[in-house]
Amino acid sequence: MSADRRLGIATVCLSGTLEDKLAAAAAAGFDGVELFENDLVASPWSPERVRGACADLGLTIDLYQPFRDFEAVPPDVLARNLRRAELKFDVMRRLGADTVLVCSSVSPDTVDDDELAAEQLHALAARAAEHGIRVAYEALAWGRFVNTYDRSWRIVRAADHPALGVCLDSFHVLSRDVDPVAIRTIPGEKVFFLQLADAPRLRMDVLQWSRHHRLFPGQGAFDLRGFVGHVLATGYSGPLSLEVFNDVFRQSEPRAAAVDAMRSLLLLQEAPDTALPLAGHAFTELDVDDVTAPRVEAALTGLGFAPSGRHRTKPVRLWRQGEARIVLNHRDPSGGGRVAVSAVAVAGADPAGSAERAEAFLAAPVGSAAVAAPDGTSVIFCRDDLGWLADFTAEEVGEDSGAGLLDTDHVGLTEPFDRFDQAALFYRAVLGLEPDDVAEFAAPFGLVRSRPVVDRARHVRIALDSALVRRGTWGPDVREPQHVAFRSADALASARRMRELGAPLLDIPANYYDDLDARLALPPELLADLRELSVLYDRDEHGEFLHFFTEVLGDRVFFEVVQRVGGYAGYGAVNAPVTMAAHRGRRLAGR
Amino acid sequence: MSADRRLGIATVCLSGTLEDKLAAAAAAGFDGVELFENDLVASPWSPERVRGACADLGLTIDLYQPFRDFEAVPPDVLARNLRRAELKFDVMRRLGADTVLVCSSVSPDTVDDDELAAEQLHALAARAAEHGIRVAYEALAWGRFVNTYDRSWRIVRAADHPALGVCLDSFHVLSRDVDPVAIRTIPGEKVFFLQLADAPRLRMDVLQWSRHHRLFPGQGAFDLRGFVGHVLATGYSGPLSLEVFNDVFRQSEPRAAAVDAMRSLLLLQEAPDTALPLAGHAFTELDVDDVTAPRVEAALTGLGFAPSGRHRTKPVRLWRQGEARIVLNHRDPSGGGRVAVSAVAVAGADPAGSAERAEAFLAAPVGSAAVAAPDGTSVIFCRDDLGWLADFTAEEVGEDSGAGLLDTDHVGLTEPFDRFDQAALFYRAVLGLEPDDVAEFAAPFGLVRSRPVVDRARHVRIALDSALVRRGTWGPDVREPQHVAFRSADALASARRMRELGAPLLDIPANYYDDLDARLALPPELLADLRELSVLYDRDEHGEFLHFFTEVLGDRVFFEVVQRVGGYAGYGAVNAPVTMAAHRGRRLAGR
């Protein structure tokens, strides 16, 4: 795809007044907007002022939308609809917009007659042409009779008017079981507009699915790359324009949402697999303060870590065990008893190149070879030769404690519900990580959605969680928890050794093991060990998973130790409600 | 129905740890619980301790649930399932629970063979009986083969074991197109358990519908009264027990949710139409402070109200026009520039009786003949002979300003998203109001859900709104807005007179009228008047609606004037996004 292609966004994608939306679209670098009629109707700005504001912001109005329920109607209804259209053409003249979207009818007035639809759309196009306006006819997936793109195209072809073409919307095409390949048979000059939206695969009423659950490309399950390929193959030369109805975006801060939208289009235009390969997690940085530093250091010691370096210029200390590394940053000594993951550092062959790519995807740089994730966490790119260790003075390190940690398995971050899809897209674009399937589970305090992102080689994993509906004052004491998970080759041995070393490990209720026995009938010796050591267990068709946790240190951070046996690629989500309840129990007991 | 029937609630209805849930259920007056297995598994309490805690709280454990994927399987799977069941029977013995829920299988192991299912369920029941346990077999609406109650009953009948009966769940029955009347053919002693849940009518995957969108009885669209009638006709003597999976309740404060749950069962057991009739809105009380009182008084004056009395003992003043009355309460002079609806007063023939009914529905009394709504607003019951005016000294009142207000049409209250369904149920129970259909619309800052509640005679209307997904710092300046709407016989004349009187009326954008013209082709004179006076318009098959608004006074309250022509029963929801944007525009301009 050409990077020169114009990029657009429908105002309905963004929250706020029309003024807010236009400013956000311009700030994110969009070339044009689809102006959603309701946004204009509710605006105190005249069409002329909207036109001027767009011009000042460098935005064109690529589409006025939508015009509904026009075609295949009795003559009296046609007369009313043509009057309505003429009034809208006048608004478009004042706006300086030259393409109007006409959706296939859902009206009880419409009849199942493609010839009549073509004849009436021809009449509409003739009127439009007098105003220099083009009509883009779109098959809604829930159109009363016209609900597939091929049928809308047959009608447009039959109408045969130069001011009439089709609008192709990825949602309306891909939500139905119609092969999109026939798009290639449409001449490019008859594709008047292209609207893009991704979506999760949901089994529900298609109208509700469309109105509430669309996503930006790369956030859902649709093959948008293939879809856009078909459309561009026609010779379509118009913009790639997003039309995303989403309950969360409707109320999200519009500037951040617009950046996210732009990032999705940049990613869509990139060739697959161009992200630079990653070697693994280099380190995870935690911010600690005078209250929490001793607790975290004691926990790390209990897990078998040893201090192994001090930063030459910053109040930062490196802890290490095998290839697992934690950096404690003491930047705010009076932090109020908090611990937080402040940076995720990944190793690769070309940190500068990775940072450049990240910035090309609109990530804000923070220092050299580091960018800010949407939640404020830094992503740091390190060379995989450990050259960055030169920033640290080596410390005398005692003997290995024998706790058996190998490296970092994953970092777990909890995102606010309205940044969850953004976060997944950010890591996808910036690090080239691929999202795994979404998991949802009922935690003790509400529904949690989980979507890990992982690189192809499974060297870097970030587990993103979000509480979907969060009450205010009542709730878990641990808000937006974060964790770092280390890999062990033998979780039971690690747990045993860590208990000897005094690690603050989380106790798991006996009821969990009784249920595990009932569910999985594990060998009695294994079950006894798991129970004794408070190690949790899961298995699937690929392998087994053993994992255990520390208590929460400070207000939100804990550590996890995992052992993957065979090809188990998950994160033990089945156990999450149990560990969440246990974490809360410990916090209450500790009061 | 008998008020002596035992009432129960599944722990899965409530948020928190098992300890939180049991405490909330007991505090709301439930007799028993269905213990959801995951709640036990995540609990640090042993089964014996749970049993003791329930006994201490006066709760029985009426059902242990769920046991899944048992029946109609190959022999090796049956052996595993029986082992699993024996382990659960042991947990039940420790809990002191004597009934287990077995859901119809969704497993790939199960086959379509009712005879085999009956044979294996017989074997399970025989094992259960040895432990004094009964098995309640339930057809899940998405069971692989057994997914209707009549089929589950045929299997139970064929199995013919005294320890095997059916569990009837209103969701699983009413979500499918199977007539529930055949429930009456089941002998009552074979109905082992009755689970109740309401739900909105949704067109979506039934499993997702069930897991996320169930509601307490009276909050949804199901005919639960009819359903329970069928079940009780069998002679069923067990508890009425709620099993409601709901994303919002999963994270709501559990004590309030449990009260709501109990209120729903009390309402379900009440005979229809027993609420005392209401004569109308007596008055609406607003809390004002030193900053806002002058603004509100000026607005009322501009709307043609006149001061007409001072309370004999409180810093309260009455404003009146026709039968429309506003009481301004100056209880907190240094309130920080706030205005809020503090009380909705309704008139009726028997205020004491209405208050008694409200308290029977668990409404907290506040003073005499007044109760607190879930959002803290008071509901005051007044005698319809205006005897309450004796609390006020009459003020000299000038001439009628001729603004034409007749009375109060409705009060609009915005509820937090997690109190919305509670609020509707509260007014339904306490005032006998019936909910209208839910409307949802895309407001400038996110989705808004609206559900008016109204009495049969349409004398008292409360319009409940809720922002479904609300972002934090970014958003409208008006948080949880409230309004009082007055009725006029001629909205255009009222608007004209109020503009002369200097009322702070809200201006509506010209674009709105251009669109109204395009949509409805109103007579040009009417359109010109509406446009000139910033009056909004709607119509439906029953009649017409004209309405206009004041600006927001203080932080959240505004007034509305409405004219209903013919049988129009709505609230002009189609115009709400426009007025919300206009209200924001005024607030921004006023900065």
Automatic annotation (TrEMBL), chains A, B:
It holds the Pfam family AP_endonuc_2. Coiled coil: none annotated. Residues 407-551 form the VOC domain. InterPro entries: DSD (IPR043700), Glyas_Bleomycin-R_OHBP_Dase (IPR029068), IolE/XylAMocC-like (IPR050312), VOC_core (IPR037523), Xyl_isomerase-like_sf (IPR036237), Xyl_isomerase-like_TIM-brl (IPR013022). Mg(2+) binds at residues 410, 483, 560. GO terms for biological process: 3,4-dihydroxybenzoate biosynthetic process. A divalent metal cation binds at residues 138, 169, 195, 243. Belongs to the bacterial two-domain DSD family. Catalyzes the conversion of 3-dehydroshikimate to protocatechuate (3,4-dihydroxybenzoate), a common intermediate of quinate and shikimate degradation pathways. This is 3-dehydroshikimate dehydratase. It comes from Umezawaea tangerina.
